[in-house]
């Protein structure tokens, strides 16, 4: 990625930056806008904010828009891909009600090489791996955090995965609302099997694909993160990731086998699902666990161990993307070094200091870094929504 620009994004009115190919450090005091820069890059890669559910939050509060145009935020960058350079752009425009008052709604407009495109066509063009202090929830937080990790990784790698995931989520929603209607007797129970047949088939098909892809990725990730964890934490035992599916897996590992398994389970659970008014199995109910020497670190790991697991998982995610796509993702590390002890900090810096690894780091304090490191990297100072070289 080279050129990067923001307009009316969070506390930035307008910036145009040239990002160096190696490591760039953005430093500045709290609330100066460092995280917002990483958020913008993550948004451009995934069309999702890592910290905000509603897109309208991204538009600068004082943004005026233009004559007749509602306020909008824009993130754009030029990305060097193997096939050549591509220009990516996302616009988030606020919505207004009939009286012209701004609402909490927003619409997203995507352009690839200046041509309108769908969000799905953007994902995967710029690949990033983001690493923030809240990522510890990946290890000790709710299962949704872990599903998000694997979904974001695979979505950036495979357009079929993004499409199937979106489709799967729609199917689950639709199926759940039907099940709720049966539970509340708003729908006659007679004919339930016929009515669900179509949705079960759709869910099993999409679900089988997602599950097979997740299992394949976990398998590959295990090869990568095992040794990485040792290098970061100094522990002698490798880290291992276990996928915890909501259905029995045994030997069923191909997408068609898994679809069949899902379909049979759905039929078996019919009554339970109606009683609960929701879809009880499938990739949206699965989880993962992380263990070292047989000990589940989500439950029993120390903070330090959980931090090392998160680091290994994030660096592993970047390595998986590189192996699969031949393109190295941009690493975005938000205020991570300040939380690590000296040894882990040295390991992390060694891990990101690789040829062709573009990395964007943020920090409040330059004192977290050694002089040699600072001399090798590009530095930018962030202050009140402005960025200055040096
Ligand atoms: N839509 C918005 N419009 C204008 N300002 C915003 C908007 N959303 C957030 N802000 C403000 O932008 C500022 C920058 O936030 P950001 O999280 O990027 O800071 P930071 O430099 O990462 O801080 P820290 O070091 O504390 O993590 C904050 O003061 C925040 O309140």
From TrEMBL:
Subcellular location: Cytoplasm
Primary localization: cytoplasm
Keywords of this entry: ATP-binding, Cytoplasm, DNA damage, DNA repair, DNA replication, DNA-binding, Nucleotide-binding, SOS response
PROSITE patterns reported in the protein's UniProt record: RECF_1
Residues binding ATP, per UniProt: 28-35
Organism domain of life: Bacteria
InterPro entries xrefs: DNA-binding_RecF, DNA-binding_RecF_CS, P-loop_NTPase, RecF/RecN/SMC_N, RecF_2
GO cellular component: cytoplasm
This protein's record includes keyword Cytoplasm: yes
GO biological process: DNA replication; DNA synthesis involved in DNA repair; double-strand break repair; SOS response
Any GO MF annotation of the entry: ATP binding
Residue ranges of domain RecF/RecN/SMC N-terminal in the record: 2-359
Pfam families, sorted: SMC_N
Function as written in the Swiss-Prot or TrEMBL entry: The RecF protein is involved in DNA metabolism; it is required for DNA replication and normal SOS inducibility. RecF binds preferentially to single-stranded, linear DNA. It also seems to bind ATP.
Similarity-based family: Belongs to the RecF family.
Name of the protein in its database record: DNA replication and repair protein RecF
High-level lineage: Bacteria, Bacillati, Chloroflexota, Chloroflexia, Chloroflexales
